[in-house]
Amino acid sequence: MTDFILNAQARTDLGKGASRRLRHSASIPAVVYGGDKEAQSLTIVAKEIAKLFENEAAFSHVIELNVDGAKQNVVVKAMQRHPAKGFIMHADFVRVVAGQKLTAKVPVHFVGEEAPVKKGGEVSHVVSEIEVSCEAKDLPEFIEVDLSKAEIGTIIHLSDLKAPKGVEFVALAHGDDKAVANVHAPRVAADAEEGAAE
Q1: Distance of CA 163 to CAs 12, 71, 98, 134, 166, Å?
Q2: Residue 110, domain CATH
Q3: Domain span at residue 116?
Q4: Looking at the domain assignment, is residue 192 inside a domain?
Q5: Domain Large ribosomal subunit protein bL25 beta, which positions (predicted)?
Q6: 71 and 114 in one domain?
Q7: Rounded distance, CA 178 to CA 130, Å?
Q8: Which of these, 125, 106, 107, lies nearest to 116 by C-alpha position?
Q9: Across 141-169, average pLDDT
């Protein structure tokens, strides 16, 4: 059973003006869809959803969504935040159906970064999350990227990562072997060498 619970109310007052009024009343608009049911517009107390997503794991876990007392299991599909202030403005949830694959964005955890840094390299994270496709029971909490053996000049791609059992990287399935991280020589050193060469 899920440890993440979120309460919501069904919403009938739709449109931009209604969404604005909602936000003024310290709630946010949301929608849940998928499975064999109709999409449903919701209202969620802003403070409650903000508290839930303080825990990074909530993004990649099944959440028990309690809509006016009716419970359903969902995962986050998308979330819109205020560009400057960072608070949540809108959330999309997709229903979890047993035995059916879902797609979700899972956070990336980088480990072993001190190894290439000790060799004088700098590490750049190209992505902070990866979209995966799997059944809800196989949904990983995060994807680990091990940089402990990375040399200066190394680019780590999706194909270099080991997907957990039952999990597929969506971009890779579509032939897009994205870069995840790279290790490069420090900018200052590179600039100094160019100056010396001139």
Answers
A1: 41, 31, 21, 11, 8
A2: 2.170.120.20
A3: 103-184
A4: no
A5: 101-187
A6: no
A7: 10
A8: 125
A9: 93
